[in-house]
Amino acid sequence: MQLFDIPASVLLSQLLLGLVNGSFYAILSLGLAVIFGLLHVINFAHGALFMLGAVLTWVGLNQFGINYWAMLVIAPLLVGVFGVAIERLLLRWIYKLDHLYGMLLTLGVTLVLEGVLRAIYGASGLPYSPPPALQGATQLGFMFLPNYRIWVVVASLAVCFGTWFLIERTRLGAYLRAGTENPRLVEAFGVNVPLMVMLTYAFGVALAGFAGVLAAPVMQVSPLMGQNLIIVVFAVVVIGGMGSIMGSILTGLGLGVLEGLTKVVYPEASATVVFVVMVVVLLLRPAGLFGKER
Amino acid sequence: MKRLHRWGYGLVLVGLLVAPLLGAYPVFVMKVLCFALFASAFNLLLGYAGLLSFGHAAFLGGSAYLAGHAMKAWGWPPEVGLIAGTAAGALLGWVFGAIAIRRQGIYFSMITLALAQLVYFIAVQTPATGGEDGLQGVPRGTLFGLIDLRNDLNMYYVTVAIVVAAYLLIMRTTTSPFGQVLKGVRENEARATSLGYDANRVKLTAFVLSAALSGLAGSLKTLVLGFATLTDVHWLTSGQVILMTMIGGVGTLFGPVVGSTLVLLLEGKLGQFGSLLTQLSGWEGFTALGQSVTTAMGVMFIFCVLAFRRGIMGLRAGKRRPAAGQDGA
C-alpha cells in the first residue's frame, strides 16, 4: 500500500508520532488557556513546569524508587503546590499591572527553574523507560504500534476532555467562567475569588506537570526540554485563539498531526511548519481560528 | 537640566575615547557598545511605541549571520557588510512587523517570539550558518580600504563612532515629530487615529527602524568578535535585551546603555562571585549556580518586575517629574 510514493507504515507511524506531540501541545495550551482565562497571565513558566514534572518523575524513580504510576499522581500535585507558591509569592502582586509584566515575571521563574535544575542535573538527557505494563508494541498488520504512545494519546485526551467538561459543564466551571467576566460581581455572591484564582493557577500548572510525567519516557528528560516546546505552544495558542478551551485542544492535536505529516513529506520543515501556519492564520484571521476579535 | 544632560553625555563620550588608553579591554567595551546599541534600538520600540517585541534576537542574529557570511564567503568589505546587515534587519523587521502588528499586547509579543523561533530554526538548518558551531573566522578587513580593522584600537574607534552616530539617530527620532506621534499612539491609539494618524503605519515604521538598528548592532558585533553563533538568534537573547532595557529603565534614552553594561559586567563576574560564595559557605552548588547566567537573569527579571519596574534611569527621572505611562510600557 503506497500513498504519494510514501510507504503507508511510515505515514501512519509519523501520524501517530504527530498525534503524541499534538497531545502534549493540547494539554499545555489548554493549561495556558485556563490560566489566562482567570488570571490574564501568559504563563511563560508553563514549559519549565512541564519540564519540572518530567524531572520529578525521573528523580522519583531514580532517587526514591517511586514508580511511574505513582508519579502520575504525585508529580502534578507537587507541581501544583509549586504553582500555589508562585501565585502567592509573585503573581498576586502584579495582577493590576499591564499583562506584559505577568509574561516577564513568569519568564523570570522559567529561567530560575531551568538554571537551578541545570546546575544540579546538567543539560544532557536523563534516561527513563516506560513502565513494564506499557512496554512493547502491538502488531497492527501494517505497523508496530508502541503501546506507550497509545497510552499517551488516550491519557491526555481523557485529561483534556475532563478539563473541558469541568469548565464548560459543571457549577464550579460556571463560577470560573463568571469570574473571568466579572470577578467583583462573583465575589459579591460570596465566592472566594482570590482562592479560586490561586487554585486555577495550581490546576493549570498541574496539567503541565502531568504532561511532563507523560513525556518522561518519550522525550529526553532534561532541564532544557521545555524551552523550545513552550514557544511552539505559544504559536499553537496564537493559531487557536486564546478564547476557547475546545479550540486549544483541537488546535494542539491538529498541529501535532500536521507536524507529523510534514516530517514524512519534507522533514526539514517539520520544526517550522507550526510557525508558518501561524503566519498564514494571522494574515487571514488575526484573532485565531477559534478566537473572538476583541 | 538640558545642560546637565549634555555634560553627562560629554563625560561618557570622553570616557569612551580614553578607555583603551586607561587599560580597558577594547574587545569587551566594543561588545558592551554593540549590546548598548541593541538595547537602545529595542527600547525605541518598547519605551516609545509601547510594543514589547520578544523576537529582537532574530534581527541581531539574522543580520550577524548575513553580514558575517557576506564578509567571509563573498569577501565583501566591512562597510558594505554592515550596510547589508542593517538592510537585512530592516527587511526582516518589516516582515515581522507587518504580521505582528495585527495583534496587540501579549499576542504581539508571542507572535514576535514565534517568528523569531522560525529564524532560529532556519539558522540551525542552513549549512551557511555552520549549525551548532556557528559562523567562525569572519575577517575584519579594512574599512573603506583605508583603516585596518585588524588593529583592535582602530576597530574600537570605528565602533565608538558607529554606535554614537546610531545613538544620536535614536535620540533625534524620539524628539522628532515622528517620535511625538509615536508616543501619542502609545498613550492612546484611538485618539491618535482620530487625529488622522495611521497608527499601524507609525508602529510599523518604528518597528522597522528598531529592527534595522538591531541589525546594525548584530553585524557590528560579528565584525568585532569575528563570529556569529546560535546564541545570537536564540530567544534567550531576546529575553536578555528586555532585561537590559528594564534594568536601565524603559523609555529613558540612556537606560538601555546602563542596563546592557550592567548585565554584561555581571555575566562576566558571575562565575567569580559563585566561587567566592562556595569558599565562604563550603557549598559546591554556588559555583554551579555562578556558572548559570540563566538563573541570575531569572532572579533579575523577577526582581525588576516586582520591585524595580522603572529601572535605574527611570528612578532618576522620576525624581524630577512623575513618570507618565511608564508602567503601561
Automatic annotation (TrEMBL), chain A:
What kind of membrane protein is this, topologically? Multi-pass membrane protein
Q: What is the top-level taxon of the source organism?
A: Bacteria
Instruction: Tell me yes or no: is Transmembrane helix among this UniProt entry's keywords.
Output: yes
Q: Which InterPro entries match?
A: ABC_transp_permease, BCAA_transport_permease
Q: Name one Pfam family in it.
A: BPD_transp_2
Q: Name one GO cellular component term.
A: plasma membrane
Q: Where's it found, cell-wise?
A: Cell membrane
Q: Name one GO biological process term.
A: amino acid transport
Q: Which residues cross the membrane?
A: 6-28, 35-60, 66-87, 99-121, 148-167, 188-217, 229-258, 265-284
Q: Which UniProt keywords apply?
A: Amino-acid transport, Cell membrane, Membrane, Transmembrane, Transmembrane helix, Transport
Tell me where it mainly resides.
membrane
Give the matching CDD domains: TM_PBP1_LivH_like
Q: Which GO-annotated molecular functions does the record name?
A: transmembrane transporter activity
Q: Which family does it belong to?
A: Belongs to the binding-protein-dependent transport system permease family. LivHM subfamily.
| Protein name per the record | Branched-chain amino acid ABC transporter permease
- Native source organism of the sequence: Hydrogenophaga crocea
Q: What is the lineage of its organism?
A: Bacteria, Pseudomonadati, Pseudomonadota, Betaproteobacteria, Burkholderiales
From TrEMBL, chain B:
Pfam families listed in its UniProt record: BPD_transp_2 (PF02653)
Q: Which GO terms describe its molecular function?
A: branched-chain amino acid transmembrane transporter activity
- Sequence intervals crossing the membrane: 12-39, 45-68, 80-100, 106-124, 153-170, 204-230, 242-266, 286-308
Lipid bilayer topology: Multi-pass membrane protein
Extract one GO cellular component term from the record. Answer: plasma membrane
Q: Which InterPro entries match?
A: ABC_transp_permease, LivM-like
Q: What is the protein name for this chain?
A: Branched-chain amino acid ABC transporter permease
Species of origin reads: Hydrogenophaga crocea
